[in-house]
Amino acid sequence: MAVLVTAELLIVFAGVLVYIWRLQFTFPNFAILLLIFIVASFLAHRDSFSKLGFGSRGIVSGLKMLAMPTALIAAALLLIGVEEGMLAAWSFSWEKLTSLGRYFAWCLFQQFGLESFFTNRLAEVFKKPKRAEWASAAIFAAFHIPNPVLMPITLLGGVCLASVFLKTRNLVPVAIAQAVVGSLLGMTLPPVWHHGLRVGPGYYNYKSS
Fold first, then answer.
1. Less crowded by CB within 10 Å, the N or C end of the chain?
2. Rounded to two decimals, what is the model's pTM?
């Protein structure tokens, strides 16, 4: 069983990397094939909706667990933003609010793939939760190569998110935490540091205005 689970992990991990670095430009529909494979894995393993992180159970406890670390990171980023002058011209608009909503949806989809598939399968391979959490975080960071800002943040943040997910079994709190931190990264740090939060070839193709 462990061999088959490991094979599933390697297939999806390699598939995502190949998509980021090549197939998104030459065969974008490959992402649909990956999603079908992941859903087929859920069906084959008979994963329940609660195991995948859906439902209301664990939302409150997850939010409580992530409130302090998210607030501390947010405060640090806001201080950097003030120091770098990135917030001087910032103003609220409904367009920014709707953009945040779309970004939250994207984070929820990312966490669905990361936690519902990778973290759950890694927990089956590694009997100790800490090993599964670090392995999940390493995968998350690998998907953000070569971005020097996102890689360490997704590694350390990924450990925290995987830990909370395994304890609460809910995707909403981890997606909210990712959306808050990700939004503030783009808002408070100079784009030249993170190249517009791009990864893969997009990082190298970024041109600052």
1. C
2. 0.95
pLDDT of residue 90: 81
Residue 13, in any domain of the structure: no
10 to 76, 106, 132, 209: CA distances (angstroms): 36, 23, 15, 38
The verdict on residue 134 lying in a domain is: yes
Burial of 186 (0-12, 13-18, 19+ CB in 10 A): middle
By residue range, what is the domain housing residue 76?
51-205
Q: How confident is the model at residue 209 (pLDDT cuts 50, 70, 90)?
A: low
CA distance 137 to 82: 29
Q: What is the pLDDT of residues 136-154, one digit of tens each?
A: 999 999 999 999 999 999 9
Q: How many domains, in total, are found in the chain?
A: 1
Flag whether 9 is in a domain: no
